Amino acid sequence: MSKDLKEYDFPADLKSMDIKDLELLSYAIRDFLIDKVSKTGGHLASNLGIVELTIALHRIFDSPHDKIIWDVGHQSYVHKILTGRADAFDSLRQMGGLSGFPKAKESKHDVFDTGHSSTSVSAAAGMAAARDLKGESHEVIAVIGDGSLTGGMAYEALNNVGASKSKVIVILNDNGMSISRNIGGVSQHLSKLRTSRGYLKAKKAIKRTLQNIPVIGDDLSVDLGHIKDRVKYALLSGGVIFEELGFTYLGPVDGHNLAETIEVLELAKQVNGPVFVHVMTKKGKGYRIAEKNPDKFHGIGPFDPQTGVTIKEASITYSHAFGKAILDYAEDDERICTVSAAMCDATGLGPFSKRYPRRFFDVGIAEAHGVTFAAGLAKSGMKPVVAIYSSFLQRAYDQILEDVCLQNLPVIFAVDRAGIVGADGETHHGVFDLSYLSAMPNMTVLAPADGEQLAEMLRYALTLDAPVAIRYPRGECGLNTVGKPFNGKNVRLEKGKDVDIWAVGKMLETARHVKEILDLRGIAAGIVDVTMVKPMDLSELANAPGKIVTLEDNVLAGGFGERLQAEAAEFEVLSFGWPDQFIEHGSCIELYRKYGLDADAIAERICEIN
Questions:
Q1: Quick one: how many helices (H) and strands (E) in the chain?
Q2: Half-sphere exposure of 171 toward its Cβ, with a 13 Å CA cutoff?
Q3: What is the value of pTM for the model shown?
Q4: Rounded percentage of the chain residues whose pLDDT exceeds 90
C-alpha cells in the first residue's frame, strides 16, 4: 500500500480492500496518528488501540446510513481519518480546526456529539427507537470502553435496550483502562472474561449439539432447555450478565486481529435483537512508549515521537499543588479521605493513593455515586475530599444539592479544570461551576489565584463543618504570587480612585495586566482578589470607587459579577465572563481574545466608561 491516507476515498475504499491491504492500512494509520498528535497534542493511546476495530466497523457497516456512536469520543480520530478528514489533521484541536471529539457540524458521519462518559448506549437506544417507529432498517452501533462501563448510566441503557428487544449493537472496546486503571467489580468481571478465549467456539458447538438432539414430547424439550441454560451459565463465565440483560453476547475477540474482528461484526449484523460484542484491545498499540505509559499518552501535549518526552512540561500545576497539600494535611488527621472518579493521577491524588491506600477511594467513572459515597463518609465522621474536573462534576449536580448541601455535610470538592481548558472544547470547559455551586444553600465557594492560596483554602475548608468547593484552573500555578495570605475574606491588593477590578481566582493575573494598561492611560485602578465567592464578602465595597469591574472565568449568567450587581446596586458594575453559549476549542489565549476577555479588550472597555 503506497497511497497517502489523504488520497483514499474513505470509507468506500475499505469495502474492496483485502485483509492484507487492511493490515497495511492499520500500520499507516498508526504512523499518521503518532506524527500528527506529536505536533498538536491530543488523545493518542486510546486511538492507537482502536485502529483495527474502527477499520472493521467501516468495512462492515455503511456510515452514515448506519449510525456509529462513540462513547466519550476521544477515541474517534481513526473514525475521522476513515471518513475523509485526514487532510485536516494538522488543525486537530486548533482554533477553527478539527475537533478532538465527534461533531455533527463537522461531518455527517459524526451522528451524535459526545465528550463525556457512559452516554453512547442511551443515545443508541433512542436512535434505534426512532428508527423502529419510522420503519427504517439501518443499524445503530454504540462503541463504549470498559472504563465507561463503570458508570451507572451505561447499565440503565443496557437494561432498557435489552428489555426493548430493539436491534442495537453495543461494542465493548475493552482495554482495561479509562484514564487511570479501571477498578471495581465490573472491571474484575471483564478481566475474567478476557481469559475465556474459547467461549465463542464452545458456545457455537454446544448450540449445534443441542439442536441435533431429537426431542420427544414437551417434557423432554423443557428438560433440554434446562440443560442448555446450565451449560450456558457454566461456559459464559460472566458473559451471562449481558445475556441476562437481553443481549446476544459475542466474544471476547482479539481487537487487533482484523479477520477475527471483521468476522464477529458480520455475525453481529446478522443477529436479530440486541447484540453485545466484546473486543479486547491494547491501549497505545503499535507505539511502544505509549504501550508502557498509557496514562501519560491518554491525553498529551506536543511531544518528541522518538522519545515520548513532551515539548513543554509544566513545573508545578494546580493539580500538583492540591495533591501535595492534601497529602500534608492527611498526615495529621486520620479522618481525611479522598475520592476520585477514575482520575487519580490527573487530579494530583497519585501520591495520596500510594501513601494512604485505605483512605483513597476510586469509584470509577461514577461521579454521582462518588459524591453520595462521600456524603456517607462525612455522615459517619470522616472528612472526605472529592477531586473531580469541573465539567464532570456537572454529572453529580443533584447529589451535591440533595445528599451533601441539604444535610449540610462537610464534603470538600476540589474542582479541578475550572474555567476554559483550551483544546478539548465545549464538553470540557468548566465554565458553569461558579453559577451552579453558588446557587446551592450551605455551600461555600472559594477560588485561589495561586498554589499557596489553594493550600491555605484547603486547610480552611477542613476546619468548616459544611460543604466547601475550591475551584481552580488547569495548568501552571505560581506558589506565592498574590503576596497576601488567604484569611477567609477577599483581599485588596491595590487602591484606585477611578475604578475597582474585582478578579475571581486565576483572573487576578489578567487584572494586573489591565491595571498596567490603565496606568499608562491615566486611570487609577484598584484590585481586589476575590477569594471568597460565596458567601459573598462585600467588606471591600467600603473602600471601592463608584465603578467596579468584575472578571471571572465562568459564564456571566449566575456568576459572581451578576450576584455582585444584585448586592451592590449603588455601584456601576461592569462584568466580564463567558457569554450564554458553548465555547469552542482553541488555545486559552485565542479564546480570551475572541470573546473580549484579554487584558487589552478589558482595558479598552474600562476606558469607555471613564
A1: 23, 17
A2: 30
A3: 0.88
A4: 83
